[in-house]
Structures are given as C-alpha cells and as structure tokens.
Design goal:
Chains A, B, C, D, E: It is a multi-pass membrane protein. Chains A, B, C, D, E: Mediates influx of magnesium ions. Alternates between open and closed states. Activated by low cytoplasmic Mg(2+) levels. Inactive when cytoplasmic Mg(2+) levels are high. Chains A, B, C, D, E: It catalyses: Mg(2+)(in) = Mg(2+)(out). The structure is a homopentamer of 331-residue chains. Chain A is α+β, with helices and mostly antiparallel strands and 331 residues long. Among the domains of chain A are: 119 residues, 2-Layer Sandwich (Beta Polymerase, domain 2), CATH 3.30.460; 61 residues. Chain A has twelve helices and nine strands. In chain A, the strands form two sheets. Chain A has a seven-stranded mixed β-sheet, with helices on both faces. In chain A, strand 6 and strand 7 form a beta hairpin. The radius of gyration of chain A is 38 Å and the shape is rod-shaped. The model of chain A has no long low-confidence stretch (mean pLDDT 89). At the C-D interface, helix 7 and helix 10 of C face helix 3, strand 4, helix 8, helix 10 and helix 11 of D. The complex binds magnesium ion (MG) (31 copies). The site of one magnesium ion has 2 residues of chain D, from loops.
C-alpha cells in the first residue's frame, strides 16, 4: 500500500505524523483527535486493517478496492463513503482526464483514496493545515474541503471546453472538413463530463441533510450550499455545451452540402467555358476542312489571296464567337 | 470602489446623500430608515467595510466580488443575496448582451452591485424615488422593482429575437446560403438567453415564500406574481424560438440539397445542349472530310456545282439536326 | 371604449340593457343580480371606471389593457382574471389566427374583453340567455361557458391542421419540392398553437379547485371536467402533429437526396449515350481522314470503286459500333 | 338503435334475454341481478332511455353519442364511464385499425357501446358466460374482462409492427428507396398507437383506487394489476419502436447519400474511360491529318511503303496508348 | 418438466436432494428449512403442483409459463414474483443475448425458472452453498444473490458495447461505409438493453421497502443497496451509449457528404486535365488541317523545309500550351 500521508490532528493542528497505521490507531485511541490517512490504489489486503480499525463497511471497501465507481455518497451508520471524479482538461488532445477519489469519513477519521495520478488531495490538506479554525470542525470539514476543491477544479474544464467550442465555430465557417471529427470527439468528452457531474446535486442534498441532522456548524452548511451553487453552474454550462455541439453537428452537415453546391456551380461554369472554347476552335477547323476538299471547281482555291483570306476567315470566325460568348458571360 | 449612488431613505423619501459609506452607516444608526448603496465592480477589500457593517455573508461577498454567477437567490439569516442577468439585444450583431446585477437586501439596507456597463439600477432608483408610497415598504420593494425592471427589459430582447427569426425565415426561402451561419449563431444566443432566464421561476417561488413568511404587504406579493407571469411568458417564447431555429436548421439542410438538385438538373440540360451542338457541327465537318478524300474516281468532285452542293449539304444536314433536336426539346 | 353589450341578469334572465355603465352599476346596487359587460380593446382610462366599481386589481387591469398575454388564470381575493386564446384556422394561408379574450369574474359581475376581431363571446351570451337554468348559476357559469366555447372551437383548428398534414404527406411522395416550406410553416403554426393550449390544463386544475372550495354546483364542476377532457384531446393531437411534421421534415431531406440520386443515374445514362454516339461518328470521320492522306502509293485511291467502298466502310463501321453499343445497353 | 345483445344475469348466469330494453329494466327491478346491454352506434334519442333508466350522466352520454374520444375513465357518483381504443393490425396495408369502445358501469348494469365494426365485446361476453364464478362479481368483473381483452389484443399489433420494423431493416440495407415512405408511414401508425395506449396507465391507477375503495374482491384487483403489467409491456415496446424508426429514418438519409457517393465514383470511372478512348482515337486521326497536308516536300508521301507505314503508325500509336492507359488502370 | 436442481436447506446447509417434488414438500413439512427448486421452461401442468403446494398466485404462474415478460416485481401476500432479464454480449455478432429468469420467493421456498439456455442460477447456488452464513438468511438472501449475479453480469455487456462503440469511432473516420449499418444495429441492441435494465431501479426500491418492512437483516439491505448502485452505473452508461451512437449516426451522414465533396473536387480536377489535353492536342491537328487546304497559292507548301517547319510548329504549339496549363496548375 502506498501511504501518501498519515497524520493525527488535535484541535485542528497536526500533532503527529506516524510511520505506520498501527501507530496512528494507537495515538487516536490514547489522545483522541482525528486521523487523516491518504492512500493510493490500496489492494484488498491493505484495506483490511483500515477497514477493521474504523469499522468501514465491507461493500464500501469492495468499491474502494475495485474502483471504476460513479460519483456517489453512501451512509453506513456513522460512516460516510463518498466517490468523486475530479477532472482536468488537456487542451492538446481536447480530452477530459478523470481522476477517481474515494473518501471514508467517520466520527474521528478521514481516509482518502486516490485511483488516479492527480486528484488535489494534497492541495486540500495543505490548505486546511493552514486554517486550524476550519480543520477543527473535524471530518465534515475535510469532506467539505475536498468537495469544494473538486468542484472548483471543474471550472478550468468548463473554460477549456468552452474555448474549444468557440474555436470549432470559427473552424466550421472556414470550411475545414476536419471539424466534423473534432465536434464529435468534443461531444463525447462533454457526455463523459456530464456523467461525472450529474450525480452531484443529489449527493449534495443527501450530505446537506446529514449536516443538518448531525447539527454540523451552520457556516459549514452554508459553505456546502456554496459548493452546490457552483455545481449547478457547471451543470448548466455543460448542458449548454451539449446543445451547442449538437447544433454544430447539424450545421456541419448543411455547410458540407453547401460547399457541394458551390463545387457544383463551379463545375457548371467550367463546363460552359470548355464548351465555349470548343465552339471557338471549331470554326477555324471547319474552314480548314472546307478548303481541304478536292472539288475541281472551288473558285476560292484559285484566288491569289484565297489562302490569306481563309486564314483571316478562321481568325474572324473565332473572334466573333469569342465576343459572343464573352457577352453571354460564358467566358 | 466606484460608488455610483449612496442614499438614506426615511419613510420612502431620500433624506440624505452621504459622501462616504461611514457617514451612511452613522446616519442609519442614528435616524433609522433604509440605506441604498449602488456599487460598480467592487474589489474584495472595498466590499469588506460594507460586508462588516451589514453582516453580509462571506460566501455571498466572494460571489459578489468574483462575479460570473448564474441567476440565483440565497438566504442568509435575515439577508438575501440575489443575482440577476439583465439583457439587451444588439440588432446589428444579433447578439444578446448580458449584464450581471447582484443585490444584497437586509432589514434596513439594499446594496446593488453592477458587473457590466448597463443594468437599469439607476432607472429603478429614479422610478422608486418618484413613488414614496412604494419605496416606504423598504428593501423588499426595491428588490421587487429591480426584478420587475430586469424582466420587463427582457421583452425587447424577445422581440428582437423574434424579428430576426422572421427575417431568417424569409432569407431561408430566398436561397441565401449565409442563412446557415445566422441560424446557428442566433440559436447560440437563444441558448445563452435561456440560461439567464430558466433559473428565475424557482427564484421567484423562493422569494414569494419569503414574502409570505415575513408578512410582506399583499400588494407587493401580487406585484411579484405579476413579474413571475412575465417570466413565464418570456420563457415560453424563448423555448418556442429554440424549436423554430431547430426546424430552420433542419430545413436549411433540405433546401440546400434541393438547390443541389436544381443545379444537377440545370447541368443535365446544359450537357444535352452541348451534345446537340456537337452533333450539329459534326455534320458539315464530316461532309468536308468526305470531299477531302483523294480517290481518283469521286464523281461529285468533278461536277460543276459540286462545291456549292457540298456546302448546301453541310448547311442542310446541320439545319436538319437542329430542327430534330429543337423538336426533342434538347435545344 | 367600445361597449359591445351591457346587461343585467336576475335569476338567469336579462332584466335590463343599460345605456351606460353608470346605470349598470346603479341597477346592480339596487336590484342585485349579475352584470355582464362586453368590451372591445378598452384604453387605460376606459377600464378605470369598471375597475373601480368592481374592485379589479390594478395588475390585472394593466394586463387587460396592454394585451399580448399568454393564457393564464389569476385569483385576486374574490375576483378571477382569466386570459384565453381562441383560435381559428384559415385554410387558404394554412395559418392559425389567434384571438385574445380576457375575462374578469367576481361575485356579481362578468367583464369580457376582446382583443381581436373574433372570439365567440356573442355566441356564448346568446346560448346562455337561452338557458336561464344555467345562467342562474352566475359568473362561474359564464366563465365555464366561455371556456367550453373556446375549447370547442379548437376542434376545427385541429381538424384543419390534420387535413393539411395529410395533404403534405401526399405532396411529399409526389416529389413537389415546395413541400419543404409548407412543412416548416405548418410546424411553426403548430408550435404557436401549442403555446396557446399548453397552459390550459394547469388553469383548469386551479379553476376546479376554486369551484370545489366555493361549493359551486356539482354539475358545473362536471361540465368543467368535460372541458378539461377536450383540452387533453386537443393537446394530445397537437403533440402528435409536432412529431409527424418533424418526421416529415426529416423524410423530405431524404427524399430530396433520393431524387438527386435519380438525377445522377439519369446523367450517367446520358453520358454513356453521348460517348457512344461520339464513338460511332468517329469511325466514318477516321475513314475520311485516312483517304485524305496524300501518299503517292495508296492503291485504294485508284480503284474504280474505291470511293463507294470507302463510303460503305464508313456506314459499315458506324453500324457495327451502333449494334455493339445497343447490345451493351449503352444506347 | 342496433341492440347487439341484451341480457340479465343473476348470480353470474344469464337468466333472460329480453326483446327490448323496457323488459330488461322491469326484470332488473323485479328480480335484481345485473343487466348487460350491448349497443352499436346509438343516436342521441336512442341513448336517452338507457341514460334515464340507469342515471347515466348527460356529459358522458354526449361523449358516447359523438364518439371520437381518447381513452379515458370518468367517475360520476356510482357510475363509471370508460373509453377504450381496441386495435387491430392490418399487415397488407401496414396500418393499425382502431375501434372505439365505450363502457358504462353502475351498481347493477353494464352498457357497452361499439363505434367500430370490431371490438371484441362478443368474445368477452362469451368467455364470461362460461365462467359464472367470475361473472358473479358483477359489473366490475365485466369491466376488467373488457380491459383484459382489449389489452391482450394489443399483443398482435405489437408483434405486427415489430415484424414490419424487422422487414424495414432488411429493406434499408438492400438499397430499396421505397423504404423511406414505409418508415414514415409506419412511424405515423406507431404515433397513433401510442396515443391509444398512453392514457391507459393513469386510467388503471384510477380504476385500482376505485376497486380498493369499493372493496372489490382482492383477486379481481390482482387481475387488474396483471392487465396493467401488460399495458406497461406494450408501452415499453411501442416506445422502442419509435426510437428504432427514428434511427431508421436518419440512417435512410445516410444510406441514400452513400449510394450517391457510389454513383459519383462510377461516373468518375466512366469519365476516365471515355477520355482514354478519346486519346487513343486521337492518335491515328492525327497521323491521317499530317499526311493529308499538301507540302511539296514531304518525303514520306513518296515512299513506296509510306501508306502501310502510316497505317502501321496509326495502329501502333493507338496500341501504345491503350497499353499505357490499361497499365494506369484507366481502362 | 426439467427439474434442474431440487434441494432442501436447513440453517444454510443443504440437507437433502430429493428425487421428486413430492419428497421435497414432505421434508419441508416435517423438518422445516427452505426448499430451492430450479426449473427449466415448465408447462402449465407441471407448474400446477408447485403452485398448489406453495400457494403461488394464478396470474404469476401464468406469466411464468408463458414467459416473454419484462423485468418486474410483484407481491402477492407473502410471496414475491420477480422477473429478471440476464444478458450476455456476443461480440462476433455484436448482439446482446437476453435470458429470462423468473423467481418465486415465499417464507420457506425459492422457485427459480429459466426460460433461456443461460442465466447464472447454478453459479449463484454454488456460491451460496459455500456461504451458509448468507444462505441462512433464507429466500431473501437467495433473491438478493440472484439479483447481484444478474446485475454483475451486465458489466461485461456494457464493456462489450463500449468496446464496439470505440471501434465504430475508428471505423467512422476511416471512411468505411459499412459503419452505417453497424451503428444502426448497435443502437438497436442498446435500445433492447435499456428496456431490460430501466425497470430495475423501481423494482429495487419496492424490494428495499419490503426488506425494511419485514425486518430483513440490515446487512442484506445494504447489499441490496450496493446492487442498486451497480444498476445505476449500468443505466448511466447505457444512456451515454445511446447519445454516442446518435451522434455517430449524424456524423456518419456528414462524413458521407464530405466524401462526396472530395469526389466532386477530384472530378473537377479531372475535367480540367482532360480539357487541357484536348486543347493541347487541338493545336497540331489544326496545323495539319491548315496545310491540308488546297489553295493554289499557299507559299509554305512550296518551301523546301515547309513540312519540317509545320511539324515543328505542331510540337511548338503543343509544348507552349502544355507549359501554360502546367503553370496555371491545370495539369
Ligand atoms: Mg459496490
Ligand atoms: Mg463509471
Ligand atoms: Mg484545443
Ligand atoms: Mg469553491
Ligand atoms: Mg483549444
Ligand atoms: Mg475518450
Ligand atoms: Mg459562490
Ligand atoms: Mg455563468
Ligand atoms: Mg413588469
Ligand atoms: Mg434583426
Ligand atoms: Mg436583424
Ligand atoms: Mg456570443
Ligand atoms: Mg402582468
Ligand atoms: Mg404571448
Ligand atoms: Mg389546407
Ligand atoms: Mg365542450
Ligand atoms: Mg388544404
Ligand atoms: Mg405566422
Ligand atoms: Mg365530453
Ligand atoms: Mg381522438
Ligand atoms: Mg408488412
Ligand atoms: Mg390479459
Ligand atoms: Mg409484414
Ligand atoms: Mg393512417
Ligand atoms: Mg447530398
Ligand atoms: Mg401477466
Ligand atoms: Mg418483453
Ligand atoms: Mg449486429
Ligand atoms: Mg454485485
Ligand atoms: Mg467488437
Ligand atoms: Mg433484434
């Protein structure tokens, strides 16, 4: 098991950083306070000790080990099991990278489990250790701070997606046919993002009820409602992204057909031009053909200036037709 | 901090216009009444004094400073924090320009904060100062009047959008391919407008409950319900705009394909015409070719009128084919 | 103010038709009964007297003057303000023409206000005056009868729309490209019709609750429920029209593309035909070219029947190719 | 009035088949039991006697006479008015044929009214007469049995529609362009079918509440719930049909465009081929042209084997080009 | 009747494996415990004995015999009838194969009925027999275990579908036109899968209520909630598959049109090329034509180097045009 951090807090202040979990459990039993253990992808066996000590429920432990959970909040007696999906936006690939963060909270402990490289837990711990007044409220305060961090981290995801949608709109009207794929792939990312955020409002309501019932500090309750407000904002914007990308997909089809019309029109122009030139060139060829005939009695053939006249006729006829077609707008 | 206006009202009448906030707070403490402070994009530090004096909640103050909030209504003990998104329609660019207006109301104060150039607060203050009977009802009356103004100002937005949709319909059937982009962009504006108005009904319900609970004057309650009715009307029309633009987008695709069919048909006509002319011109060329052959025994070559006959044959054959194709409708 | 009709009813029977409103108010005060005043587009000033006498609420009066309301039902103490949108189907233009009817009802009066040329109020009054047993129930009976009339008048609208959808289906498959516009415009009319009817069920529920609470005659309650049933029927059919027209729009796109395919196939046929003819004509031209060469030693040129043989060769080659292409199905 | 059947049942057994309604009413008054009268499209006058005797409500009677009702269930005191839309699938035309069945039930009577040729009432009566144990439960048992029959008869409709959708899928991929119309028309039938079945669950809930309230036999209650389960199954499948046909419509458009691409590709091939042949034929024509020139000093013209060499050159050049184009894959 | 397994369990341990059902019923009566009978497609007659002994409800028995049920949960007094649709994903055909599993549970029995080759019942029995502590809880534990198995088995279905959607995305952009059919067929499978899983949450809620009411062990209740969580996860992903495939279908249409544009552009290029070559070849032909004229006075014809000059002119003109067209990018 990778223990990322392991600390005991008394009255909002870190009083010990034990080397192993046994020490943590002992200290907690002796001096009271709150333990906050940070783990990274624990195995079933590794979770067993923690589960036993804190009375974590078997089913929640199973989820924590197997990972791939959707965001949820489950209450087992006095313990709470929370799953969150932190997100990060990678602009190079235009993908949303999801983390997975599990949090067990009980009367005197917090166990945070990361199933991805990032997740923001360290940042939250650092922030809280600088605010003992907040950390003093115990596990609920830690849970709130984690939720707050995860939800705040959705803001750059939303901004990144919005930025790409703006880019897509410009690309759409510039006629770049690669935009089709980009719209589709961005829509897929938005769908996945929606799956990560849509369970949150119901979770928040459940959590708020718990906070109310267990008489958690009113300020913490309000802070939680503030997080909920941010969640609503994120959801509202993600929903509008879906609509925009749907429209963009439809429009892309129409613009594609439009370009086809333009190509068709260009082709028509070309055919007109070619036909005109063919007609222009036909005239002198025809004159040549006529005077290539072998009749005995073709007076022109015997005129002194027959040849230059014929050449003149050739050019004249070609010129005449050129002028006619030019006037008709075919050339 | 840009203080836009700063006044104390007693019994619905402006009794003082202090030069700074400290004076306002003193007057309020001494003579009672209601303060109405109008701010423009205050910084965190600037908001601190106001927040302290009126007991504004830290989280609401944070929102008020950072802006970019969706419309919402939050109650903190006896204070209310309201976010509104006033809108204006710019017909030249066919965009909806959104303001952002934050309102703190408490037992004896109103703080209005603008985060955009316009918002209509000054107009509301002027209107209310002309109606002391209304202003006498205190902060609730101000909040109602702001809501009323913001919602009334949605009417020209709706009218502008409707007008553009009408224009789009005409443009659609006139075959202007630029309409695709216009439909898409207008749909985007409508989506944004919907995000600004959809939270309002729930906010109104919350506010009405508060008005009922705090025994606010029945007439003010009814006026609020009147605003709610206007909100419903705006929402119903904005929703129908979405549907209309969706249909327009689909139809645009079909009409584009239709134009393609027409181009195809025109091209077919052209090909027919060109082929016909090629055939017509072939006839005289062929005659010239035949009489250009060098056989010893070609009687026609020695006829006295062989040449004019050949030319006649050329014209005759061409004319015959011209008539045939004309009759077939190919020319 | 255009007073369309102005009557006092006692026990379901018209007892007076006063010349002006003052008289009406006096009679009502003296003899009791119910007044029913029918107005047409009153101005603000004109409404003032009526509002004052009957205690109409300022906000409702404002709506009644400014018009352009969506269907709604508002209760102010003992008065009710109802907005209805009667509809008529104009088959020539395939549009739904909407009226706007406002109804104020109180303990002893009904004020009906028309904001469009038609609306059916006169028909309802006539019908009720023939049924004193119904009219005796007072303002509630009038309100019911108006609702009943408006909803019954939706039936021909629904029938007209259905008829046009049937026509559209036939037109679709006959390949008439004008159908695109027709589908779009009919869909727009259906969307507007839906906006007129969708608020009705909620209004009916509100009204029914009022009828129950105020102990209105059970038969009138049942009649109201009958109207509600008709409303449901209208809504269900209008909804299905939306779906049908949506499908028609999609199908229209596909059929358009299909016709394009057919045009494409026809063009391919044509190109084949033209190419075949070009090849057929090439043969004799080539023969002519060969025998136009000036070699000293070209035995055929000196044959006695060289020329007819050459001509024969020309026709033979052309015929052979014609047969070949015919067999290949290219001609 | 067409009286289809007219019987009195005592204790679940048919005790009389009176010749007219008066007799029925008398018997019922004298001996008790339950009357079951089956009518076919009665006129207003014809319904009057039945309505009077059994106290049917005027509004329900109006509906029963005018027909064209959507499925519904209305309670008037102790009487119930039920409208059902039986359905039959006609595979030849791929249409759903709807019947309309009205049922009045009261304490001691059932009146069934058919507004279409079929409806299944006779089958239900026969089935019930064979089960006196069921029929003994009175009007509720008859109503249940009719519902059960109507809902069971939806099964072959669902099966027929599913079968046609399967056929459509095959047809889609075989490239038959007639499938567009078929999809559209089947979707229309499904939409109508949905209108016939969607009101049923709410009706069942209402009926179940009545059964519970009036203490109807628990077994009949369970049977009713079984019918409700079948209704849910029918609705779930009809909904999936809508989705499938919607997808089929979209796909049809894409496949049509795909065929267009194939036609385009074929046309490109053809143009290549024709151009190649034109180039091949150009070569010998050009040779002929060159040796048709009249220069005094053209040595080849005086060679003994000039002519055969020229012809050889013609064939050689043509062959060379043929080989080149063949290698390039243009032929 | 195919009896697949037939056992009596006392205190969570298999105490007997009777040869026929009569024995089972006797043992149960004598020694208590729980019977678990596993059947495969029983006929009506075969079910009669079981139904009689355990008091199974006639309607549930009818469903169990006729099969083709949607997932549901019905309570009859102390018995429960559950229908589940296990699923398996066949990757070769990209279809979801559905089983159908019926479960009757009562105070002291479980009857499992399979209507398809697979279903997982044997695996569940084996797993439970290894855990007497769980099996001791009786029929509820068996029902839970079956639900758990069926829902766990949905995971590979979801994974298989997701994998195919990934493949489809790659195929889409590789321009394989066979993808249209694949998208459509996969969407159909997803629709069927949704029909199998969407009734589950409501069933779970019903079952949980029962567990609560009948005081079933809290751990079993929690395990059930864990299954519900997995169901939610499956539903959320299946829903996102629908959206993805819908987008894929739309995109496929656009990409198809895009390929058409590319074909169009290629064709334009080709026409340009061919026209250029025709013009290039025209030049020498025209020279040949001119010098094939028979004028008496054509000085060039008598020049000594007239012929080579003419040939030079032919090549020169052709070369000039070649260079011109090359520079214009037409070649
Ligand atoms: Mg789990
Ligand atoms: Mg997941
Ligand atoms: Mg990017
Ligand atoms: Mg935050
Ligand atoms: Mg970007
Ligand atoms: Mg991805
Ligand atoms: Mg905030
Ligand atoms: Mg926002
Ligand atoms: Mg207003
Ligand atoms: Mg405009
Ligand atoms: Mg404009
Ligand atoms: Mg914008
Ligand atoms: Mg109003
Ligand atoms: Mg309106
Ligand atoms: Mg019409
Ligand atoms: Mg009516
Ligand atoms: Mg018509
Ligand atoms: Mg209109
Ligand atoms: Mg009716
Ligand atoms: Mg109907
Ligand atoms: Mg068929
Ligand atoms: Mg049945
Ligand atoms: Mg069939
Ligand atoms: Mg039909
Ligand atoms: Mg196309
Ligand atoms: Mg059943
Ligand atoms: Mg089924
Ligand atoms: Mg498949
Ligand atoms: Mg499981
Ligand atoms: Mg696969
Ligand atoms: Mg299938």
């Amino acid at each position: 098991m990778t223990i990322i951090d392991n600390a005991v807090y008394v009255d909002g202040v870190r009083t010990a950083t034990p080397h192993n979990l046994e020490q943590t459990f002992e200290m907690l039993a002796e001096h009271g306070g709150m333990a906050w253990i940070g783990l990274y992808r624990p195995t079933k066996e590794e979770m067993a000790a923690v589960a036993q000590e804190f009375g974590l429920h078997e089913l929640a432990v199973e989820d924590a080990v197997s990972a791939h959970q959707r965001p949820k909040l489950e209450r087992y007696d006095h313990n709470l099991f929370t799953v969150l999906r932190p997100a990060r936006y990678l602009d190079e690939t235009e993908t949303v990278e999801f983390g997975e963060l599990h949090v067990f909270t009980g009367p005197n402990f917090v166990v945070t489990i990361r199933h991805a490289e990032t997740g923001g837990v360290a940042r939250v711990r650092k922030r809280l250790e600088e605010r003992p007044d907040l950390l003093r409220h115990g596990p609920e305060a830690v849970l709130y701070a984690l939720l707050d961090q995860v939800v705040d981290d959705y803001a750059p995801v939303v901004a990144g997606l919005e930025n790409d949608i703006d880019e897509i709109e410009d690309q759409l009207f510039s006629g770049d046919s690669a935009v089709s794929r980009r719209i589709y792939e961005l829509a897929r990312e938005v769908i996945q993002f929606q799956r990560a955020i849509h369970p949150l409002p119901d979770m928040m309501v459940l959590l708020e009820k718990g906070f109310e019932k267990y008489g958690v500090d009113i300020e913490l309750q309000r802070s939680l409602r503030d997080v909920e407000d941010h969640v609503q904002r994120v959801i509202s914007r993600a929903n509008s992204f879906r609509d925009l990308l749907q429209n963009a997909l439809t429009l892309d089809g129409t613009l594609t057909a439009n370009r086809q019309n333009e190509a068709s029109a260009a082709q028509n122009e070309q055919v007109k031009k070619i036909s005109s030139w063919a007609a222009i060139l036909f005239a002198p060829s025809f004159v040549a053909g006529v005077y290539g005939m072998n009749f005995d009695h073709m007076p022109e053939l015997h005129w002194e200036f027959g040849y230059p006249l014929a050449v003149g006729l050739m050019f004249g006829a070609a010129l005449l037709m050129y002028v006619i077609f030019k006037r008709k707008g075919w050339l």
